From TrEMBL, chain A:
InterPro entries given in the database record: BFD-like_2Fe2S-bd_dom_sf, FAD/NAD-bd_sf, FAD/NAD-binding_dom, Metab_Enz_Cyan_OpOx_G3PDH, Opine_Oxase_asu/HCN_bsu, SoxA_A3
Gene Ontology molecular-function annotations: oxidoreductase activity
Domain SoxA A3: 383-457
CDD domains named among the record's database cross-references: GlpA-like_Fer2_BFD-like
Alphabetic keyword roster: Oxidoreductase
Official protein name in the record: NAD(P)-binding protein
A Pfam family reported for this protein in Swiss-Prot or TrEMBL: Pyr_redox_2
Residue ranges of coiled coil: none
Lineage: Bacteria, Pseudomonadati, Pseudomonadota, Gammaproteobacteria, Oceanospirillales
């Protein structure tokens, strides 16, 4: 098995910035990303999107250009289309490219795998036609194609408005926005108004998006307290109730429903590696432990970007620089004083970038009933386990999600618990009167994403000494 | 008052390890009048016992284990009556496949060897008979060795059933408690220290070492000589596929265990070693080993190439130098019984080992031969030790 000094997993803002920093210090990192092109979530398909009009996807999108250009220009071994399906604490990385799995070892690893959308279980969310707003945005950025039929967006958070606006500008017909942000959030967020004022750029952007939706005449329902996706074989409509009319189900026909309750760190890898995770009451998610430089509590592993806690694209970029510096220092490639000197201005910018977060987190915090749905709602889509079943098993004495797996197979399907993990932990904690920390989360097992037996078997030659790593196939 | 009297009359036993062998021993000891406490540092079934492949197999056993495995199967067949749940046991049979004539010759002589020992559970299958029973197997396979009545069960469910039964018999379980120190108590029994603030010390007349992958450490603390290693054994599980396989499949020449579960998922294992974290509590899969294991499986079932892997994992197991367990009395200390080192095939045996531990604690001759599992086989001065004991 070949050993490399530095692997970076993820080519979003965090991973690209980390690669650029390492390359500028004369160390050539290998960057793995499963996507065919660099950019991560926010700058996805920037080089190839058919939506070339800069107004359409917005200035924040096109900001990614310089990072992508650096990735292409600097001495970086960038490997698109390489999915990391396994990692060990010894730095063994299993990558899958096409139908070939290979193994490689890295002395240091920067995890920059980003965020995922928070699970948003409502009645009918498994119907075809219902999907995450973020997933829909991926389709928009890569293909530029929008369906003619009316769509509804439901949920909360800045990305919900952004996706709505991006779809509108691309010519979609948005029938309604159903906003689930609880009424009291506004008041609770005021406590953090100081940070919000200093982070005015975000607020201005948010207000601009809202104005644009209003100008376009999009129906905007606020204080939605219940939501259901309707239809037999596929989505035909959406029903909801609001705080102002709590007894009336209102309806609207639609064939697409985009759901969004914010994003949470993608913890598949840090969990599989057995790192410590803390529950963030502010962001209602697990955060892998990392220090101010992104050093994790797993030796030789560093975490940059939204995978360590939600800070947004600009923060991710700065964290990528810091993590690369820390990795270079731990490799002995730069010394301590250099690390301190170069990190100081980056950390100042990062602090300024993060100052708005407490306000945003409080403003868009999803209410309890959305995170711990009613008994009849399916929570684990793979094994079809309902919230009621989880509560029933909790009453039988099941204290944690891992025992829940043994009892019900909940979380053991191909999605690896990505779509149910948070919900299961939150329901169990509430049911057992425990903290989230006491309740814990799934012990994650590789593969992080499905790989076929044939692909896995193709790594069989990669025992020490075998030609596992093709030097000549460098992509950049 | 009642309690004090109880304490006076009933001997006490402390079982270290809440896996299957601990649960089995606890059940039988409690039933025979011991006051039993099981101490488990994590939770019941956290390690090998909760995460194994669930193979219930007599097929291919070491000759020394055959009598125990045969007796254990008899218990599996009436598990529900014994412990209130059948553990999901399906007697779907186990088959070891020969991929060439040389393999087949070895299986034929193995069957003869087993018959010579007085058992008739292993039978050879012709190529046609193999194909009839396992239509999906690759065409190059020439025959097999089969054991009807063997099969598979659900490990966590089985462990839970044994734990519940032991509790019904009166055993007390202390999970999340680690035994950190073992001392001889002045009166001839044992005094244990734990890491739990509420349980600083535990006393018992008898100590039962069922500590699985950690049993070697415990032996070290007790000055017992043993060649045992904790190993991480790996398994791979696939998405659901249309039912195509009844029996559990092994290979005559390669490490493999391959079976389709009730829900359609296929489980691939074979005692392939992964890695154990330095802390000793976490098992990691080793990619190269997994890949080889899967390659072996695809050799027998090539049509599975495009089936997706859903999960892989590794569990920690105690593996001895000679691959058979340690089961018997200590010769260094009175009132210490060992039951560990099941070396990747202790799931099936757990149905009988508790009875053996019970017999030993009652100071009577076990009904089954356990001399080959004597811990003295690892002691360099064992000849001397044995000589002094036979007086
Ligand atoms: C669906 C979605 C859409 C979003 N859209 C926007 C937006 O439009 N505007 C905005 O400001 N913020 C958006 N965000 C928020 C986003 O998290 C941050 O803005 C920013 O992209 C975070 O940067 P990052 O580098 O930490 O992670 P990301 O940009 O998410 O980059 C992570 C990269 O890691 C790769 N990766 C992950 N797992 C593996 C693996 N196993 N193997 C190989 N590669 C892997 C991914 O392919 C991805 O390219 C979105 C988030 C999500 C989840
Ligand atoms: C992946 C895998 C697949 C397998 N497949 C099969 C199969 O198909 N068929 C088969 O027959 N066998 C199989 N086995 C083997 C079988 O699972 C084991 O032999 C059996 O479960 C061992 O049980 P045990 O009670 O000895 O150990 P364990 O289940 O490991 O229990 C020992 C317990 O002791 C506890 N402990 C240790 N030290 C202390 C301490 N100081 N204080 C408190 N508690 C302590 C541990 O936490 C542990 O829970 C497999 C094993 C693995 C790992």
């Amino acid at each position: 098995m070949k050993t490399i000094p530095l692997a970076i997993i993820g080519a979003g803002p965090a991973g690209m910035a980390a690669a650029r920093t390492a390359a500028r210090h004369g160390l050539r990192p290998v960057v793995f990303d499963e996507q065919p092109a660099p950019g991560g979530q926010i700058y996805r398909a920037l080089e190839s999107t058919p939506l070339r009009d800069p107004e359409l996807l917005g200035q924040d999108y096109w900001h990614g250009r310089s990072l992508i250009e650096a990735l292409r220009r600097e001495p970086v071994d960038y490997r698109p289309g390489h999915m990391v399906w396994q990692l060990t604490r010894a730095g063994e990385i299993g990558v899958l490219a096409g139908d070939t799995a290979a193994l490689i070892r890295a002395e240091r690893v920067v995890l920059a795998t980003g965020a995922q959308e928070r699970p948003f279980p409502v009645p009918g969310w498994t119907l075809p036609g219902v999907m995450g707003a973020g997933a829909a945005q991926v389709l928009l950025k890569t293909s530029g194609v929008v369906a003619r039929a009316p769509m509804i967006l439901a949920g909360s958070g800045p990305l919900l408005y952004l996706v709505a606006v991006q779809y509108l500008r691309a010519g979609a017909s948005v029938a309604a926005i159903l906003e689930t942000t609880p009424q009291e959030n506004r008041r609770l967020a005021l406590a953090h108004i100081g940070g919000a004022i200093r982070g005015w750029r975000y607020l201005r952007k948010g207000a601009g998006l809202l104005r644009e939706l209003k100008r376009a005449g999009v129906r905007h329902e606020r204080h939605v307290v219940a939501l259901r996706a309707e239809g037999e074989e596929a989505l035909t409509g959406v029903g909801w109730r609001t705080a102002e009319r709590p007894d009336d189900w209102q309806h609207c026909e639609a064939t697409t429903l985009l759901l969004h309750h914010g994003v949470v760190p993608n913890v598949q890898m840090t969990r599989a590696l057995g790192g410590e995770h803390d529950w963030s009451e502010q962001q209602l998610c697990w955060r892998p432990r990392r220090d101010a430089f992104g050093r994790s509590d797993i030796e030789n592993f560093f975490i940059a970007g939204d995978g360590g806690g939600i800070g947004g694209a600009r923060a991710a970029q700065l964290q990528g620089e810091l993590a690369a510096l820390a990795a270079l220092e731990s490799l002995g490639h730069i010394d301590g004083p250099t690390l301190a000197r170069e990190a100081a201005p980056v950390r100042r910018k990062l602090d300024a970038e993060l100052v708005v977060r407490p306000f945003l987190d409080a403003l868009y915090r999803p209410g309890d009933s959305w995170r711990r749905p009613d008994d009849e709602v399916v929570v684990c889509r793979c094994e079809e386990i309902s919230a009621g079943e989880i509560r029933r098993v909790a009453r039988l004495g099941c204290a944690g999600p891992n025992q829940m797996k043994s009892f019900t197979r909940c979380g053991m399907g191909p999605c690896q618990g990505r779509l149910c993990g948070l919900t299961v932990s939150e329901i169990l904690a509430a049911e057992n009167g425990q903290s989230l920390e006491q309740t814990g989360y799934y012990r994650l097992r590789p593969p992080f994403k499905p790989i076929t037996l044939g692909q896995l078997a193709s790594a069989a030659g990669d025992a020490p000494g075998a030609p596992a790593w093709n030097e000549t196939e460098t992509a950049s | 008052m009642e309690r004090d009297r109880d304490r006076f009359v009933k001997p006490t036993a402390l079982v270290i390890g809440g896996g299957l062998h601990g649960a089995s021993a606890a059940t039988q000891l409690a039933r025979s009048g011991f006051r039993v406490t099981v101490v488990e540092k994590n939770y019941a079934g956290r390690h090998a016992s909760g995460v194994n492949a669930g193979g219930v197999r007599r097929l291919g056993r070491h000759p020394a284990e055959i009598p125990l495995a045969v007796a254990a199967l008899e218990r599996w067949q009436r598990l529900e009556a014994l412990i209130g749940d059948d553990g999901g046991f399906h007697p779907c049979g186990q088959i070891k496949v020969a991929e060439n004539d040389e393999n087949m010759a070895r299986l034929v002589s193995r069957a003869a060897e087993v018959r010579e020992l007085g058992f008739d559970h292993e039978i050879t299958l012709s190529r046609d008979e193999l194909r009839r029973r396992v239509p999906a197997v690759a065409p190059h396979c020439v025959g097999a060795l089969a054991c009807d009545g063997d099969g598979a069960a659900n490990p966590y469910r089985t462990l839970t059933a044994w734990r519940r039964q032991s509790q019904r018999e009166g055993a007390i379980w202390r999970e999340g408690v680690r035994v950190t120190r073992v001392d001889r108590a002045p009166g001839g029994g044992w005094r244990l220290s734990t890491d739990h603030p509420d349980l600083p010390g535990l006393d018992a007349d008898w100590l039962i070492n069922c500590a699985g992958g950690w049993a070697g450490e415990l032996c070290g603390a007790l000055d017992e000589c043993v060649a045992m290693q904790a190993q991480a054994l790996m398994l791979t599980i696939t998405e659901r596929v249309t039912p195509f396989l009844g029996p559990v499949i092994g290979s005559a020449s390669r490490a493999l265990s391959f079976k389709q579960m009730d829900n359609g998922s296929v489980m691939i294992g074979g005692g392939i070693a992964g890695c154990i974290d330095t802390g000793g509590e976490r098992a990691d899969v080793r990619l190269a080993g997994l890949a080889e294991n899967v390659q072996t499986a695809l050799g027998l079932f090539p049509f599975m190439r495009d089936v997706r892997v859903v999960r892989t994992w590794a569990g920690i197991e105690g593996v001895t130098g000679d691959g058979i367990p340690v089961l018997g009395l200590s010769w260094r200390h009175p009132r210490l019984i060992h039951s560990f080192g099941y070396s990747a095939h202790g799931f099936q045996l757990s149905a009988i080992t508790g009875e053996i531990v019970r017999d030993l604690a009652l100071e009577r001759e076990p009904a089954l031969p356990i001399a080959p599992f004597d811990i003295r086989r690892f002691d360099s001065s064992s000849a001397a030790a044995r000589a002094s004991h036979t007086h």
